[in-house]
Amino acid sequence: MKEFNNVLRSYGTTIFEVMSRLAQENGAINLGQGFPDGNGPPDVVRVACEYLETGVNQYPSMMGIPPLREAVANINKRFYGLEIDGSVEVMVTSGGTEALASSLFALIEPGDEVVLIEPLYDSYLPIVRRAGGVAKFIRLEPPNWSLTESSLASVFSDRTKLILLNSPMNPCSKVFTTEELSLIASFVSKYDSYAVCDEVYEHLLFDGLKHVPLMTLPGMRERCIRIGSAGKTFSLTGWKVGYITAQLNLLNPIAKAHQFLTFTTPPNLQAAVAYGLSKDDHYFKTLSSGLERCRDLLANGLKNLGFEVMPCHGSYFITADFRPLGFEGNDEEFCRHITVEAKVAAVPVSAFYQGGGVDNFVRFCFCKEEKTLMKALDRLRKHFNG
Ligand code: PMP
Ligand code: GLN
User: Looking at the CA of 366, which ligand is closest?
Assistant: First the structure.
């Protein structure tokens, strides 16, 4: 029989699915895959239910229902001062994942170079490669995960079509500083390239930090594709409603990819997300402050157990070095070990790097109820401290 696609054949099952299955098989508390254990804001869920019974459930416009596009434009203005025309500069997608895929398929010509920053969210590289792009990696390492001018200079060239930027960053919870964003902007401008900005964790920042979209920097409005996700903003990761903000000439080719990939997204979920994005500041503040408390609870608990916990300024995740616990083995072995033996699942950070190297860090997800986190810490304590 003929071979299937070569790029996709080279990948196994995603680490998130692997660890979630292992967690389930072992009755482990799943701090691996990033999803909250609640059921989202009840009023947002209610709008979706009501729409199913009273709204129009046929194909909506491929660009998304007008109220949601308007709500995305408004949130751009409200949080970042961006003037966006919702009728032409916003497109709704089936999750951040589809937004990323449509953007990459639309922009990359075979042979184009694409700058990717490791540790790297799992869907980026396969899609870049499937689109024919050539990945150029910048590697950020613990404990500081800092980005330097020389690392950017070593990968950017006239062949660079785009950089993919994720801030706040999964898995390392890094929030890029204004200096780092300015550096990126200068390289993007200098080499006439674009920036696909994965900002799905834009409302999940801690310690008083505020999210700064690369798009707000001088010269970046016409070069950035900004991606958001209702999954993270409303703690409803299964909904898969994403949205892209980009200037019309950039959004047009992306819409062409989207029309052949998913075309549209369930209208009741779109209506509910439109409602949700119009919620007052209290909602957004409570979302981040609640998560910040969970971060502190997990970070302190892991420190007390002996982990060396890395700084975490945003997202759902915290990373930690497990070597001080005396475990002899790599991060994958450690994650399997704690899932099977301590009944707590995590994700190995090496899964986010190509060439290995960092294999003593694990990622724990803290977007859980406090009692879930305390139970997980208790299980780890019993396992490691007897
Ligand atoms: N980008 C990053 C960095 C993520 O962590 C996720 C998590 N799911 C996504 C994109 C995908 O978002 P969605 O679930 O809306 O497709
Ligand atoms: N973004 C989630 C994480 O990093 C996983 C999403 C998925 O499983 N595809 O855990």
Answer: 2
